[in-house]
Amino acid sequence: MTLRPATNADRDAIAALLAHHRLPLDGFRVDDATVAVANDGTLLGLAALERYDGAALLRSVAVVDAGQGVGAALVRHLLGQADAEGRRVVLLTTTADGYFPRFGFSVVSRDEVPASVQASEEFRGACPASAVAMMR
């Protein structure tokens, strides 16, 4: 498995994987995404890190086959980038609030999220109001 920046050539596979997991495409930018690919180039998973003033939004974490460590590798990779840049990382989730504490995330109120991230499409409506906000 290789982790690499997503390209426009990955767009259709990314859209299909996000749709499969019912994750929003609103506001998604290929330039923010990292993909995990098999040796034959097959998409195994993706995650995106949207950068804002002093913070970042981790979004669109999706894998083809759960339990293979692909998602964890993607999350660790992007958190490493955020740490190197000195950014706090925020996410919204409707299904994985039990998954992210292992990476140092804890549940927060939306009011605690930096205003720059609250202005993102994900916070303004791409994710439902019932989504759990988490921050690291």
What does this structure look like?
The structure is a single chain. The chain has a single domain, classed as Gcn5-related N-acetyltransferase (GNAT) (Aminopeptidase). A hairpin with a 5-residue loop joins strand 2 and strand 3. By secondary structure, it is of the alpha+beta class. The protein is built from four helices and seven strands, in the order E-H-E-E-E-H-E-E-H-H-E. The chain has a seven-stranded mixed beta sheet with strand order 1-2-3-4-5-7-6, sandwiched between helices. The model has no long low-confidence stretch (mean pLDDT 92). The protein has helices spanning 11-20, 70-84, 115-118, 121-126; strands at residues 2-5, 33-37, 43-52, 55-63, 88-93, 106-108, 132-135.
What are its keywords?
alpha+beta; Aminopeptidase; seven-stranded mixed sheet
The largest β sheet comes out as: 7 strands, mixed
Examine the coordinates and then state which fold CATH places here, giving the name of the CATH topology.
Aminopeptidase
Give, in order, the helices and strands: EHEEEHEEHHE
Could you say which overall geometry the principal axes of the C-alpha atoms support? globular
- Kindly provide the name of the CATH class: Alpha Beta
In short:
By secondary structure, the protein is α+β, with helices and mostly antiparallel strands. The chain is 26% helix and 30% strand. The chain is built from four helices and seven strands.
SSE layout:
Elements: E1 2-5, H1 11-20, E2 33-37, E3 43-52, E4 55-63, H2 70-84, E5 88-93, E6 106-108, H3 115-118, H4 121-126, E7 132-135
